[in-house]
Amino acid sequence: MEDASDKKRAARQPAVQRLLARGIYDDPLILDDIVERILADVGPRSIHADLDRCPVGEGHRYRDLAARVFLRAFSGDIDVQMMRSEFGIAGGRGDLELPFHIRAFDKRPLLRDWRHRFNLSSVLVEVKNEQNPAPPDHVRQIESDVRVSPLGNVGFLVCRNGLTLAAQKRLTEVNKKQDVLLLAFNHRELHELPVLSPGHLERYLHRKELRQLQTVA
Questions:
Q1: Is the domain covering 43-213 a CATH 3.40.1350 domain?
Q2: Of 71, 80, 77, residue with least CA distance to 47
Q3: In this predicted structure, what is the pLDDT of residue 89?
Q4: How far apart are CA 208 and CA 196, in angstroms?
Q5: CA triplet 147, 149, 151: central angle to 5 degrees?
Q6: Do 161 and 131 form a contact (C-beta atoms < 8 A)?
Q7: Residue intervals in the chain for CATH 3.40.1350
Q8: Which has the higher per-residue pLDDT, 216 or 174?
């Protein structure tokens, strides 16, 4: 049985085919169609399997999987055409940038709150696919990147095996300043994100922010 998204894709296929026949491949209609097909074909279970199959050390592959996780989790709120990977920032290199559609700030209270508090337009994402828990240097790296970003002061730090205690303390110290927001995600949490509804995702992220503001003993 077709759902609403299936009918929407079917209805626009004639226009998509006309653009392709004319050799036009970068039209927003085509890009939206490609992304919707990817998200329709690649469900949470497939993402979970691909995450678990990705070997430690394959940074680019794990980064791309993290991008898939956040695309599905934010469910159409991310402006895919404006996404970036492997881009220059602060004399270094950023892994991912997730820009939000302007409409997302109207319908998502948490994103609206982050926009007010942290000038959010995009989230910077740093991804570490390493054997050991991440050291404080990884927190300092994303903090530095977020502070110079003109698109807001929110960063996600994805570390396959979590953070060391020293890195957790550093993260708490940064967030307590209230001028930037850094949230850390491990491999298990990447599994959790794709299956959350938009409302549950907001509660999940809000609670994560509260937990990371608490003092690490």
A1: yes
A2: 71
A3: 82
A4: 14
A5: 125
A6: yes
A7: 43-213
A8: 174
Residues 6+ apart with CB under 8 A from 106: 112
| pTM score above 0.85 | no
- Distance of alpha carbon 25 from alpha carbon 19, whole angstroms: 7
Residue pair 66/125 in contact by the 8 Å Cβ criterion: yes
Lowest mean pLDDT among 12-21, 30-39, 112-121, 173-182: 30-39
Instruction: Return the ∠ at Cα 79 (arms to 137 and 39), rounded to 5°.
Output: 95
Integer CA distances (angstroms), 208 to 7, 66, 117, 185, in order: 37, 18, 16, 9
Name the one residue in this structure whose structure tokens are 């998200």. 39
Contact between residue 161 and residue 129 where contact means Cβ atoms under 8 Å apart: no
What six digits make up the tokens of 173? 């110290």
Residue 9 has pLDDT above 80, yes or no: no
Tally of CB atoms within 10 A around 113: 15
CA distances from 3 to 9, 87, 166 (A): 10, 37, 48
End-to-end Cα distance, the chain: 53
- Quick one: what percent of the chain has pLDDT higher than 90? 64
Tokens read off for 131 = 């054997």
